[in-house]
């Protein structure tokens, strides 16, 4: 799916001063990417803990709501860092991203994962107990979406 109407926006992003700063120096891009990946590791840790608890595999002594309450501040903080650092990385090579199929898959999965997390997962994890079928379904979908984002992000450099 080619979204040619977005080309002017991508060109504008590619020409921003911030994009040139990130892409033009020696250390800026690698440092931002390192921060991005560290935040990604924290996010995945949180998603895995919540998902595996939902599925009844991990931390059975905790309620779903209790474990979610504990990890949510870390999940939200890591998500803020990921979205900020990801935007900076994108600005440095927006035109490359425009023609990259993996980038578009990542964007689609990110939108789906955020929507799923802040609607379905949030609603389901407010309960102390969740039915096995609901927990397994929601947990698996969450894991697949977030891990898919990571795989697509990794593929951006190779596509």
Describe the fold and architecture:
It contains 7 helices and no strands. By secondary structure, the protein is an all-alpha fold. The protein has one domain (7-158). Helix 3 packs antiparallel against helix 7.
Q: How many strands? A: 0
Q: N-to-C terminal Cα separation, in Å?
A: 16 Å
**Secondary-structure element order, N to C:** HHHHHHH
Rg, Å, rounded: 18 Å
Largest sheet data: none
- Which percent range fits the helix content? over 70%
Sheet-strand content, in percent, reads under 5%
Overall spatial form: elongated
The total domain count is 1
Short synopsis of the structure:
The chain has 7 helices and no strands. It is mainly alpha-helical and 159 residues long.
Write the layout of secondary structure elements.
Elements: H1 7-14, H2 17-24, H3 28-54, H4 64-92, H5 94-98, H6 101-124, H7 132-155
Helix pairs in contact: 2-4, 3-4, 3-7, 6-7
Features:
mainly alpha, 7 helices, 0% strand, 159 residues, single chain
